[in-house]
Design brief:
17 strands, alpha+beta, about 550 residues, Phosphatase 2c, domain 1, Beta-Lactamase
């Protein structure tokens, strides 16, 4: 027993293709043989019926021509004469030669539906002795004469035929022809009965024998073909299947992970071997892929760990959430969510040497580690220059020059910086290509109309303009990055500016209320949609006259 046969014994298939193929082909063979035998039988019966009709009519005609020279009435009156015996012998010879069941000469009485037999003979010897007695000369029998008999009587030169079935004798085919007297008028009818039941039985039996023989031959051929299919196709396929299942089972449960794969060699050099060769190539590719994937997984785990550390460091530099009060009159609330482990958004709030307070929100182009590194550099630089320079525009120009000179990847930063003075009811701001903030005053929220300057890190000779805006007691200014208004839900619909303004207006009249309100509205809008950009929100409230 070879490997393929052993594999076939091991594997239990719920729905075996081989078994289904075996059964269906066998059924098709049997149906084909039955249909072929049935059609052949029908054709033989039809051909035999045509032949029987011709034979019966021909024999009846011959008998009629033979007995036209005889005196029918004399034969009827002298059944013991030598001429009668010769006539009976002649009629029986015709009957036996053509294998008729019966032949008979009779005189019909159409008025009384009776017939008078002149003589009757049968093919079978015992039956012949019986009919000679029962249907002897002069025997009169009641008989409903058929149209074929009437037609033969009325047309002496015509041979008519009639097919009938009798419960006692079965199915018969009978030909009639008239015996004419010397005056040309019919004096008697000659009938010849041919048993269709017997011939049908013989045809069916002969066809059944042929079908049986054909079935035996086809069964032998079929078994040989199926044995060939099982040995050359089914068993090799099962062997391949067992190898595949065993290989991937070992991979799945972690056993034999270092065991070298043994290529499948059937030695057949056919399509099955080609299939095995494809699996061998696939297994080799899987081995290579697994090795590379293991290395990549290890490297990815290492990177994930490093990124998580970087994330913690970033949130150490920039708090994820922050709520502080400056100079006892400016409430600051901030929140940041990175799209990845680390991101490029940042914010900062710090006191300036002259007692003023500075808040800044920025967004570095790109995402991931590179953006995070550039962000840390930009945040530190902004804090440093804004602290060193009393004039914000001069500070931004220095920040821009240093970013341009230390920017090999061509990254840039958008930033919005605001400077608050507790002794003033307004604030100063610089917009370096950033989103317009939302100002909330007297319960009404709207965008702060401000003309943006160019982004930081693009051109080293860029100039930045300081602007001012009113900021009375109870007013709130909300700074944010584009990860807020450009956030999308599952239907790819943007959160947009209108929802942002509405969230600011409907939030609680505190810095934390605005910050949390915007974030909650954004979360409800996006639901479980993937976050594609960093989100940063900073809200500052003027609370000079606290209750």
């Amino acid at each position: 027993m070879n490997n393929a046969e052993k594999s076939a014994d091991k594997i239990k298939v719920k729905k075996s293709i081989f078994k289904r193929l075996f059964v269906r082909v066998l059924v098709l063979f049997i149906l084909a043989v039955i249909v072929s035998g049935t059609l052949n039988c029908i054709e033989n019966i039809q051909r035999t019926r045509r032949f029987t009709r011709q034979l019966t009519e021909s024999a009846s005609k011959v008998a009629t021509e033979t007995f036209e020279r005889s005196d029918i009435n004399a034969l009827l009156d002298n059944p013991d004469s030598e001429e009668y015996r010769k006539a009976v012998k002649t009629l029986r010879w015709i009957c036996q030669t053509n294998h008729f069941e019966y032949m008979y000469i009779y005189i019909p009485n159409f008025d009384e539906n009776k017939v008078t037999y002149v003589m009757t003979v049968a093919d079978d010897d015992s039956e012949n002795e019986n009919v000679l007695k029962v249907r002897s000369a002069g025997a009169e029998v009641d008989h409903s004469l058929w149209d074929a008999e009437k037609e033969a009587w009325e047309n002496p030169n015509l041979v008519t035929a009639y097919e009938y079935q009798n419960d006692s004798f079965g199915s018969f085919y009978t030909a009639f022809s008239a015996v004419q007297g010397k005056d040309g008028k019919p004096v008697a009818l000659i009938g010849a009965d041919y048993s269709l039941t017997q011939i049908y039985t013989e045809i069916i039996f002969y066809t059944a024998m042929r079908v049986l023989a054909l079935l035996v031959v086809l069964a032998i051929v079929f078994l040989l073909v199926m044995l060939f299919v099982r040995k050359k196709m089914y068993n090799p396929i099962l062997l391949i299947f067992e190898k595949i299942r065993g290989y991937f089972s070992d991979k799945a449960d972690g056993t034999n992970t270092r065991k070298a794969f043994e290529p499948i060699k059937l030695g057949s050099d056919d399509e099955i071997q080609l299939l095995a060769d494809y699996f061998n190539d696939m297994a080799h590719d899987v081995e290579t892929y697994v090795e590379k994937n293991s290395a990549l997984a290890s490297e990815k785990a290492k990177n994930e760990t490093e990124l998580e550390v970087a994330r913690r460091i970033q949130y150490g530099i920039i708090a994820r959430e922050k709520n502080v009060v400056f100079a006892d009159c400016f409430d600051v609330s901030a929140r940041m969510e990175s799209a990845r482990q680390v991101g490029g958004d940042f914010y900062d709030c710090f006191a300036l040497p002259d007692g003023r307070m500075c808040a800044v929100v920025g967004d570095v182009s790109g995402k991931g580690v590179a953006a995070a590194m550039f962000m840390a550099f930009a945040k530190t630089l902004i804090h440093e220059k804004m602290t060193e320079n009393a004039e914000p525009d001069r500070a931004f120009e220095k920040i821009n020059k240093e970013l341009c000179s230390s920017n090999p990847e061509g990254m840039f930063v958008t930033a919005f910086a605001v400077i608050f003075d507790k002794n003033s009811d307004s604030f100063l701001y610089i917009n370096a290509g950033h989103n317009k903030p939302v100002a909330v005053s007297n319960g009404k929220a709207e965008f702060l109309e401000c003309k943006p300057c160019i982004m930081l890190g693009v051109f080293d000779d860029a100039r930045y303009v300081v602007n001012s805006a009113e900021f009375g007691n109870g007013d709130i200014i909300c700074l944010y990055t584009d990860g807020v208004n450009e956030a999308t839900n599952a239907d790819n619909e943007f959160f947009g500016n209108e929802r942002l303004v509405s969230a600011c207006q409907n939030a609680g009249q505190t810095a934390k209320g605005v910050c949390d309100g915007v974030y909650e509205a954004l979360t409800d809008f996006t639901e479980n949609a993937e976050q594609f950009d960093d989100i940063t929100i900073v809200a500052i409230k003027n609370s000079k006259n606290r209750d």
